[in-house]
Amino acid sequence: MHRKTIDFDKMTRRFLTEGQTPSVASFIQSLEEVLGKLRPKSRTDERRVEIAKSHLKEIRRSVRRLQNEVTLLQEQLQVLEEAKGNNE
To answer: Which residues contact 31 (CB under 8 A, 6 or more apart)?
Structure first.
């Protein structure tokens, strides 16, 4: 039986040569893909993979909340800076 293996060296080289830092969303997507391709051999491993998927879903929600909060704070900062500029 032929199993498809993930070439992490190739993935790392591609990451380094692109010169851009991937976003958190791309890291999460990559982890989801890896977890989706795993084929656990036992019930215990199946449960571990399911728990990891669940944790990843919670991480995605938390990241989304944090990104929204950062956007809100950036907007508030911009308003404060504009107000300060008008007062000077």
So the answer is: 56
